[in-house]
Amino acid sequence: MEKPTQRQYSFEVKKEIVERHLAGETKMDLAREFGLSSDQLVKDWSLKWRQGGDDALRPKSKGRPKGSSAPKRLTEEEKLRRQIARLEAENAYLKKLRDLRKQGPA
What we know:
By secondary structure, this protein is an all-alpha fold. The protein has helices at residues 11-22, 27-34, 40-52, 76-103. It is elongated, with a radius of gyration of 29 Å.
């Protein structure tokens, strides 16, 4: 027995199905005619179209947007500023730790 795969439908097919559904054709008839796995798809697409218009039926890009993964190059000055900030935070932490040890058990 074959496992059912998720089929992707083009924007044009979805739009036609939604328009015909809104014109009065039943979900079941449309699902049968277009070979949809369920009449629930017709209901979902119609709802999406009502809420978001044509853009809601268009395929969405998946994954991380292009160009967002390349970090910008830091200048030498910026690297040094970050190192100074990290060392200052470490220094403040160690001073606080020293003061807590001097106080002893509470």
